[in-house]
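Posted in: Structural Biology > Protein-Ligand Complexes

Title: Requesting predicted complex, fe (ii) ion in pocket

I'd be grateful if someone could produce the C-alpha cells for the following input. Sequence and ligand are given below.
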Amino acid sequence: MKRSEINSILRGAEAFIASAGFNLPAWARFSPERWRTELASGDYDEVRALALGWDVTDYGQGDFLKVGLTLFTVRNGSLSDPRYPKGYAEKLLISEAGQVCPCHFHFNKREDIINRAGGTLCMQLWKSSPGGEALSEESFTVSVDGKRVACTPGLILRLVPGESVTLEPGVYHAFWAEGERCLIGEVSSVNDDENDNRFYVPQARFPTIEEDEAALWHLCNEYK
Ligand SMILES: [Fe+2]
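-- Reply #1 --
Done. Output follows.
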C-alpha cells in the first residue's frame, strides 16, 4: 500500500470512530516525531511490546477496498512476557461495505466480535478440520449475545448494530460490512498476530508499504 493511502484511511477511521462516540487514547494521534521522544523515555514500552494502536492492512493483496481491514488495538496482554500478564485484549475494527476480512481462525484466541455501529456485519462461519487445513462439513453452534444459534457450514450470520457473536478457537470466519461501513468491537483473550492466526488461503497479515509521503501516525508494528 502507498503511505498516502494509509494516511488517508487513518484520517477517515479517526473521524468515523469519533462520530460513533468512541474516544481513543491521546497517543492514537502522536506524530512519529512525538513517538521518538516518548519511546525513548521508556514510559510507552507496553504500547510497543504489545503492538497497540493503528493497524491498516490489505493482507498483501493490493486492493484495500476489496480485501482489507482497519484496526486499532486498545489493550492487550502477552503470553510470553511476564511484564504484561493481562489475559485479555480489546480492538476496534472498521470494515468498509463489501470489504472482506479473509477467512481465518485463531489457535488460542477466543473472541467476541461486536457490531458497534454502522451497517450490517456479515460473518461467515465454518468449523475447521482437525488439522486446520480444511473447512469442516460439521454443523456446530455459536453464541449470539448469549443465545445459542445453530450453524451449518458456511452459514452467514447477519449482525445488526448492538449484536455480537462469540468465536471459539478453531472456528473459521470471514466477514464484511453490508450496506455501509461497520464499526466493530473485538473483546478477546490475548491477541498474538505473529503466531495465532491460521488463514485458509495463506496470506500476509501486514501490508508492504511504499513510502510516497511522510507517515501521519505509526502503525502498530512501526514503533521500533
Ligand atoms: Fe479473527
